Amino acid sequence: xxxxxxxxxxxxxxxxxxxxxxxxxxxxLDFAETGRVRYAMHELxxxxxxxxxxxxxxxxxxxxxxFEAVQNPYESDNRVIAGVPLVNSLLTVRRLAEVEELEKRLxxxxxxxxxxPPGREYARLNRRALLxxxxxxxxxxxxxxxxxxxxxxxxxxxxxxxxxxxxxxxxRMKNDAGASLAYLDRVAxxxxxxxxxIQHPLVDSAERGAALLELGRFDEADAQFRRCRQLQVQxxxxxxxxxxxxxxxxxxxxxxxxxxxxxxxxxxxxxxxxGRLNPxxxxxxxxxxxxxxxxAQQGRHAExxxxxxxxxxxxRSSNIPYLRxxxxx
Length: 329
Hints:
globular; mainly alpha
């Protein structure tokens, strides 16, 4: 319970070693992979994902899903509860085929057991909206997200904020940064009940910074990216796709200031992470594109051309306008 409280209070990295011990101790006590071991693994997966340790988180969460199916022969809420964290982690690393397959299974389970609580329904619809967005199906995504924002009940305002964040992301992916800012202003007007996770202002500052950057409002963008970097440290999140928007935006501003070495360090780490978690994706290509720019600014022109060619191949495979426009730069 202490470790779960640490994670809930934005201290996931402190929770991880405690949860590893809890998992090992529970396994020794039970002499098997019991439900209690699975619960410890579930909590460990949540903490790893929150800390940006996404590769290990996905491995742990896949085992949780497998163990639940073996340990519980009858379908129940436990099957959905076990699967949702894995969906969220896969969404973070943009592995869309895996997300779609697992969401279909979870939706079928939920339909059979019935009685979906409102909060779970809103979360499911927001995940659907984000998946549609990442597939480039923006009109469908907007319909789902804005419907959630319109009909969410007063006691679920976090889901309304989440839906509007997706609408803001959609607008930015369509290269409409002004509309993105308008949605983010609506998010900022929502008053969430305390305690509010740092994750919310972190995402909002990164998205706002990215939109301001596209509009050429560089000083304002810089202030937002400074804030999201501070919140990243405070929330104990390592450099990973969880904070990719903040990393790329900060690096772009560093390049604009003529500081390619500063940009190179973070872009190297981010591109390595994408290479492990979703190699060859448009998001991997985005990181490599800006890394190539950093190399070119340092006079490493031959290496930059080779890397840029790799990035362009990845970017061309995307159907997201924000990524595809990098090919023309």
